[in-house]
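User: structure tokens for this one?
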Amino acid sequence: MGSKYINAMQQKETMKQLRDRLILLREQYDRGARMRGAVAFMHSSPLHYLIMLEVATACLGNKCLNFEGIVKRIPTKYGSRSTINTLLVDYVARGYFGKDVNPGDKRSKVYCATKETLKDLNIMIENSTRMLKVVA
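Assistant:
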């Protein structure tokens, strides 16, 4: 067989693999949106998702973010300061984040994901990894 034929076959297989992975990602997103709890709430919008990722990442790095730190990390195209504040209040009210006094500055509050939220995120990521390995 000619090299053009082999390259075309390899490219076709790569595209099929990519298509299968994208289908699995879509199914995972739909499943996450249907779930209950923190994972479902973070799938509500891109801003919900970004806030969860920023706060959870900081917590796992043994740092808690205050409001200003969260606002600095999230591009303004996703939400205004007031919208970010509203979502943070909602995350705390639902029990997905904790809000404590900042040890370094008693005037500000810091946010951190709860242990249950981090556990749910870990399960979501493990399921994603497992699903993508199936298609590989």
